Amino acid sequence: MAPKDFQYTQEQIPHHRRAPLILAKYPGIRSLLGRKNPWTFAVIVGCVALQLFTAWHLQNAPTWQIVACAYLVGAYAAHSLFVCIHEAGHNLIFRTTNANLAAGLVANLPTIFPTALAFRLYHSKHHSFLSVEEHDADIPSKWEAKIIGGYSLGKLFWLCFFPVFQILRTPRIKDQRSFDRRIKMNWIVQLAFTALLYSLMGPKALIYLMLSFWFSVGPHPLGARWVQEHWLVLDNHQETYSYYGPMNIVNLNIGYHNEHHDFPSVPWNLLPEVKRLAPEFYENLHSHGSLTGLFFRFVFDQEISMYSRIVRRLKYKTYET
Fold it and tell me: What's this model's pTM, rounded to 2 decimal places?
Protein backbone atom coordinates (compact mmCIF):
# COMPACT_ATOMS: atom_id res chain seq x y z
CA MET A 1 0.00 0.00 0.00
CA ALA A 2 1.07 3.56 -0.61
CA PRO A 3 2.45 5.34 2.45
CA LYS A 4 0.04 7.70 4.24
CA ASP A 5 2.73 9.82 5.83
CA PHE A 6 6.33 10.77 5.27
CA GLN A 7 9.13 8.59 6.62
CA TYR A 8 10.65 10.63 9.43
CA THR A 9 14.24 10.43 10.59
CA GLN A 10 16.54 12.07 13.10
CA GLU A 11 19.69 10.76 11.48
CA GLN A 12 22.40 13.02 10.13
CA ILE A 13 22.27 13.87 6.44
CA PRO A 14 24.04 10.88 4.82
CA HIS A 15 26.12 13.05 2.49
CA HIS A 16 27.55 15.08 5.37
CA ARG A 17 28.59 11.82 6.98
CA ARG A 18 29.90 10.05 3.88
CA ALA A 19 31.94 12.86 2.32
CA PRO A 20 34.56 13.06 5.13
CA LEU A 21 34.96 9.26 5.01
CA ILE A 22 35.58 9.37 1.26
CA LEU A 23 38.11 12.19 1.57
CA ALA A 24 39.91 10.39 4.38
CA LYS A 25 40.30 7.25 2.26
CA TYR A 26 40.80 8.96 -1.10
CA PRO A 27 42.46 12.35 -0.47
CA GLY A 28 43.08 12.70 -4.20
CA ILE A 29 39.43 13.70 -4.60
CA ARG A 30 40.32 17.00 -2.93
CA SER A 31 41.92 18.04 -6.22
CA LEU A 32 38.46 17.96 -7.83
CA LEU A 33 36.88 20.28 -5.26
CA GLY A 34 36.33 23.86 -6.32
CA ARG A 35 37.28 23.24 -9.95
CA LYS A 36 35.57 25.43 -12.55
CA ASN A 37 34.39 24.42 -16.01
CA PRO A 38 34.03 27.50 -18.24
CA TRP A 39 33.16 25.19 -21.15
CA THR A 40 29.73 24.92 -19.53
CA PHE A 41 29.11 28.42 -20.85
CA ALA A 42 29.70 27.08 -24.37
CA VAL A 43 26.92 24.57 -23.68
CA ILE A 44 24.71 27.47 -22.57
CA VAL A 45 25.41 29.45 -25.74
CA GLY A 46 24.79 26.39 -27.92
CA CYS A 47 21.48 25.50 -26.25
CA VAL A 48 20.28 29.12 -26.29
CA ALA A 49 21.17 29.39 -29.98
CA LEU A 50 19.41 26.08 -30.75
CA GLN A 51 16.23 27.19 -28.98
CA LEU A 52 16.14 30.59 -30.64
CA PHE A 53 16.91 29.11 -34.07
CA THR A 54 14.12 26.54 -33.67
CA ALA A 55 11.68 29.14 -32.33
CA TRP A 56 12.40 31.36 -35.33
CA HIS A 57 11.64 28.55 -37.78
CA LEU A 58 8.42 27.65 -35.94
CA GLN A 59 6.94 31.13 -35.81
CA ASN A 60 4.47 30.24 -38.59
CA ALA A 61 4.31 26.47 -38.05
CA PRO A 62 1.13 24.47 -37.29
CA THR A 63 0.41 23.73 -33.65
CA TRP A 64 1.14 19.99 -33.91
CA GLN A 65 4.62 20.74 -35.24
CA ILE A 66 5.34 23.18 -32.42
CA VAL A 67 4.26 20.61 -29.81
CA ALA A 68 6.28 17.82 -31.44
CA CYS A 69 9.43 19.93 -31.69
CA ALA A 70 9.06 21.08 -28.09
CA TYR A 71 8.73 17.49 -26.87
CA LEU A 72 11.41 15.89 -29.05
CA VAL A 73 13.99 18.70 -29.22
CA GLY A 74 13.19 21.68 -27.05
CA ALA A 75 12.68 19.73 -23.82
CA TYR A 76 16.23 18.39 -23.95
CA ALA A 77 17.75 21.80 -24.64
CA ALA A 78 15.66 23.42 -21.90
CA HIS A 79 16.61 20.73 -19.41
CA SER A 80 20.30 21.09 -20.25
CA LEU A 81 19.95 24.83 -19.67
CA PHE A 82 18.37 24.13 -16.30
CA VAL A 83 21.36 21.95 -15.40
CA CYS A 84 23.63 24.83 -16.45
CA ILE A 85 21.63 27.13 -14.16
CA HIS A 86 22.29 24.58 -11.44
CA GLU A 87 26.03 24.66 -12.17
CA ALA A 88 26.01 28.47 -12.09
CA GLY A 89 24.14 28.32 -8.79
CA HIS A 90 27.05 26.37 -7.31
CA ASN A 91 29.60 28.80 -8.85
CA LEU A 92 31.08 25.96 -10.93
CA ILE A 93 31.36 27.73 -14.29
CA PHE A 94 33.47 30.85 -13.65
CA ARG A 95 35.65 31.98 -10.76
CA THR A 96 33.62 34.98 -9.64
CA THR A 97 30.08 34.99 -8.28
CA ASN A 98 29.01 37.80 -10.61
CA ALA A 99 30.19 35.89 -13.66
CA ASN A 100 28.22 32.83 -12.55
CA LEU A 101 25.16 35.00 -11.92
CA ALA A 102 25.46 36.31 -15.47
CA ALA A 103 25.84 32.78 -16.85
CA GLY A 104 22.68 31.75 -15.03
CA LEU A 105 20.79 34.71 -16.48
CA VAL A 106 21.90 33.85 -20.02
CA ALA A 107 20.90 30.18 -19.56
CA ASN A 108 17.51 31.32 -18.28
CA LEU A 109 16.67 33.47 -21.34
CA PRO A 110 14.94 30.95 -23.66
CA THR A 111 13.10 29.19 -20.81
CA ILE A 112 10.91 32.31 -20.49
CA PHE A 113 10.12 31.96 -16.79
CA PRO A 114 12.55 33.81 -14.44
CA THR A 115 13.89 30.92 -12.37
CA ALA A 116 17.70 31.13 -12.36
CA LEU A 117 18.42 33.33 -9.36
CA ALA A 118 15.50 32.15 -7.24
CA PHE A 119 16.68 28.58 -7.82
CA ARG A 120 20.17 29.57 -6.67
CA LEU A 121 18.73 30.93 -3.44
CA TYR A 122 16.58 27.94 -2.52
CA HIS A 123 18.91 25.23 -3.83
CA SER A 124 21.70 26.15 -1.42
CA LYS A 125 19.36 25.32 1.47
CA HIS A 126 18.42 22.02 -0.18
CA HIS A 127 22.04 20.93 0.21
CA SER A 128 22.58 22.32 3.70
CA PHE A 129 19.26 21.11 5.12
CA LEU A 130 18.33 18.12 2.98
CA SER A 131 14.77 16.94 3.71
CA VAL A 132 14.20 19.44 6.55
CA GLU A 133 10.70 20.62 5.76
CA GLU A 134 11.17 24.22 6.95
CA HIS A 135 14.27 24.74 4.78
CA ASP A 136 14.12 22.35 1.81
CA ALA A 137 11.66 23.32 -0.94
CA ASP A 138 12.25 19.94 -2.61
CA ILE A 139 10.03 18.26 0.01
CA PRO A 140 6.32 18.18 -0.94
CA SER A 141 4.09 20.15 1.40
CA LYS A 142 1.73 18.13 3.57
CA TRP A 143 -1.34 19.56 1.83
CA GLU A 144 0.25 18.70 -1.53
CA ALA A 145 0.92 15.11 -0.50
CA LYS A 146 -2.60 14.71 0.91
CA ILE A 147 -4.34 16.07 -2.20
CA ILE A 148 -2.27 14.16 -4.80
CA GLY A 149 -1.87 10.93 -2.86
CA GLY A 150 -0.80 7.82 -4.77
CA TYR A 151 -3.34 7.75 -7.59
CA SER A 152 -2.04 7.74 -11.15
CA LEU A 153 -4.10 10.70 -12.36
CA GLY A 154 -3.04 12.73 -9.34
CA LYS A 155 0.65 12.01 -9.87
CA LEU A 156 0.40 12.76 -13.58
CA PHE A 157 -1.31 16.05 -12.73
CA TRP A 158 1.50 16.76 -10.25
CA LEU A 159 4.15 16.16 -12.91
CA CYS A 160 2.29 18.37 -15.38
CA PHE A 161 2.24 21.25 -12.94
CA PHE A 162 5.47 20.56 -11.07
CA PRO A 163 6.79 24.16 -11.32
CA VAL A 164 3.55 25.49 -9.82
CA PHE A 165 3.82 23.13 -6.85
CA GLN A 166 7.44 24.19 -6.36
CA ILE A 167 6.42 27.84 -6.20
CA LEU A 168 3.63 27.09 -3.72
CA ARG A 169 6.16 25.47 -1.36
CA THR A 170 8.39 28.50 -1.04
CA PRO A 171 6.34 30.44 1.58
CA ARG A 172 7.03 27.72 4.15
CA ILE A 173 10.81 28.11 3.80
CA LYS A 174 12.23 29.98 6.80
CA ASP A 175 14.94 32.66 6.77
CA GLN A 176 14.62 33.17 3.05
CA ARG A 177 14.82 36.36 1.01
CA SER A 178 11.82 35.66 -1.17
CA PHE A 179 12.21 38.59 -3.60
CA ASP A 180 15.65 40.14 -3.20
CA ARG A 181 17.57 42.43 -5.55
CA ARG A 182 18.98 39.58 -7.64
CA ILE A 183 15.59 37.98 -8.20
CA LYS A 184 14.14 41.34 -9.22
CA MET A 185 16.96 41.67 -11.74
CA ASN A 186 16.13 38.19 -13.07
CA TRP A 187 12.51 39.25 -13.62
CA ILE A 188 13.51 42.47 -15.38
CA VAL A 189 15.90 40.68 -17.74
CA GLN A 190 13.37 37.95 -18.56
CA LEU A 191 10.50 40.36 -19.16
CA ALA A 192 12.63 42.52 -21.45
CA PHE A 193 13.96 39.50 -23.38
CA THR A 194 10.51 37.93 -23.73
CA ALA A 195 9.05 41.21 -24.98
CA LEU A 196 11.85 41.41 -27.56
CA LEU A 197 11.23 37.82 -28.69
CA TYR A 198 7.52 38.49 -29.06
CA SER A 199 8.15 41.57 -31.17
CA LEU A 200 10.63 39.76 -33.43
CA MET A 201 9.15 36.26 -33.68
CA GLY A 202 5.54 36.44 -32.56
CA PRO A 203 3.44 34.30 -30.21
CA LYS A 204 4.12 30.85 -31.71
CA ALA A 205 7.84 31.16 -31.02
CA LEU A 206 7.07 31.93 -27.37
CA ILE A 207 4.65 29.00 -27.22
CA TYR A 208 7.43 26.69 -28.45
CA LEU A 209 9.83 27.96 -25.78
CA MET A 210 7.25 27.71 -23.01
CA LEU A 211 6.27 24.19 -24.04
CA SER A 212 9.96 23.20 -24.14
CA PHE A 213 10.34 24.33 -20.55
CA TRP A 214 7.08 22.66 -19.50
CA PHE A 215 8.02 19.31 -21.02
CA SER A 216 11.56 19.50 -19.65
CA VAL A 217 10.38 19.56 -16.03
CA GLY A 218 7.06 17.72 -16.23
CA PRO A 219 5.18 15.25 -18.48
CA HIS A 220 8.27 13.82 -20.15
CA PRO A 221 10.87 11.16 -19.24
CA LEU A 222 13.10 14.09 -18.26
CA GLY A 223 10.55 14.95 -15.58
CA ALA A 224 11.37 11.67 -13.87
CA ARG A 225 14.59 13.32 -12.72
CA TRP A 226 12.71 14.95 -9.84
CA VAL A 227 11.55 11.50 -8.73
CA GLN A 228 14.94 9.90 -9.33
CA GLU A 229 16.85 12.14 -6.98
CA HIS A 230 15.17 11.61 -3.58
CA TRP A 231 11.96 9.60 -3.88
CA LEU A 232 11.68 6.26 -2.09
CA VAL A 233 10.60 4.19 -5.07
CA LEU A 234 12.70 1.18 -4.12
CA ASP A 235 12.18 -1.03 -1.08
CA ASN A 236 14.85 0.59 1.07
CA HIS A 237 15.51 3.66 3.18
CA GLN A 238 18.09 5.26 0.91
CA GLU A 239 17.59 9.02 0.75
CA THR A 240 19.35 9.92 -2.51
CA TYR A 241 19.60 7.97 -5.77
CA SER A 242 21.84 8.34 -8.77
CA TYR A 243 20.97 7.64 -12.39
CA TYR A 244 23.70 6.20 -14.64
CA GLY A 245 21.84 5.93 -17.95
CA PRO A 246 22.41 7.53 -21.36
CA MET A 247 20.44 10.71 -20.67
CA ASN A 248 23.40 11.90 -18.61
CA ILE A 249 25.00 12.79 -21.95
CA VAL A 250 22.47 15.53 -22.67
CA ASN A 251 21.76 16.23 -18.99
CA LEU A 252 25.42 16.94 -18.13
CA ASN A 253 25.78 14.12 -15.60
CA ILE A 254 23.05 15.50 -13.36
CA GLY A 255 22.12 11.87 -12.74
CA TYR A 256 25.23 11.47 -10.55
CA HIS A 257 23.19 12.78 -7.66
CA ASN A 258 24.77 10.96 -4.73
CA GLU A 259 28.16 12.10 -5.97
CA HIS A 260 26.89 15.66 -6.36
CA HIS A 261 25.38 15.82 -2.87
CA ASP A 262 28.56 14.37 -1.39
CA PHE A 263 30.71 16.94 -3.19
CA PRO A 264 28.60 19.88 -4.45
CA SER A 265 31.73 21.84 -5.36
CA VAL A 266 32.72 19.33 -8.07
CA PRO A 267 31.60 20.40 -11.60
CA TRP A 268 29.41 18.14 -13.71
CA ASN A 269 32.19 16.86 -15.97
CA LEU A 270 34.15 15.47 -13.00
CA LEU A 271 31.32 13.71 -11.14
CA PRO A 272 32.01 10.36 -12.89
CA GLU A 273 35.59 10.70 -11.65
CA VAL A 274 34.35 10.85 -8.05
CA LYS A 275 32.59 7.52 -8.57
CA ARG A 276 35.64 6.04 -10.28
CA LEU A 277 38.01 7.07 -7.49
CA ALA A 278 35.76 5.86 -4.66
CA PRO A 279 33.85 2.95 -6.22
CA GLU A 280 32.93 1.03 -3.06
CA PHE A 281 31.07 4.05 -1.65
CA TYR A 282 28.69 4.15 -4.64
CA GLU A 283 28.49 0.70 -6.18
CA ASN A 284 26.56 -0.65 -3.19
CA LEU A 285 23.99 2.13 -3.36
CA HIS A 286 20.77 1.59 -5.30
CA SER A 287 20.58 3.56 -8.53
CA HIS A 288 18.30 3.99 -11.54
CA GLY A 289 19.08 2.90 -15.08
CA SER A 290 16.11 4.32 -16.99
CA LEU A 291 14.30 7.63 -16.55
CA THR A 292 11.56 6.49 -18.94
CA GLY A 293 10.92 3.36 -16.87
CA LEU A 294 10.98 5.40 -13.68
CA PHE A 295 8.49 7.89 -15.13
CA PHE A 296 5.91 5.19 -15.85
CA ARG A 297 6.55 3.38 -12.60
CA PHE A 298 6.05 6.56 -10.58
CA VAL A 299 2.79 7.34 -12.37
CA PHE A 300 1.24 3.86 -12.35
CA ASP A 301 2.66 2.18 -9.22
CA GLN A 302 -0.03 2.64 -6.58
CA GLU A 303 2.48 1.92 -3.82
CA ILE A 304 4.31 5.18 -4.58
CA SER A 305 2.67 8.35 -3.31
CA MET A 306 3.58 11.95 -2.52
CA TYR A 307 4.49 10.66 0.94
CA SER A 308 7.29 8.47 -0.45
CA ARG A 309 9.94 10.78 0.91
CA ILE A 310 12.18 11.00 3.97
CA VAL A 311 11.62 14.07 6.14
CA ARG A 312 14.29 15.08 8.61
CA ARG A 313 13.07 16.33 11.99
CA LEU A 314 16.38 17.71 13.19
CA LYS A 315 18.85 20.08 11.60
CA TYR A 316 22.55 19.24 11.65
CA LYS A 317 25.63 21.33 11.12
CA THR A 318 26.46 21.19 7.45
CA TYR A 319 29.63 19.79 5.95
CA GLU A 320 30.80 22.08 3.19
CA THR A 321 32.87 20.57 0.36
Answer: 0.91
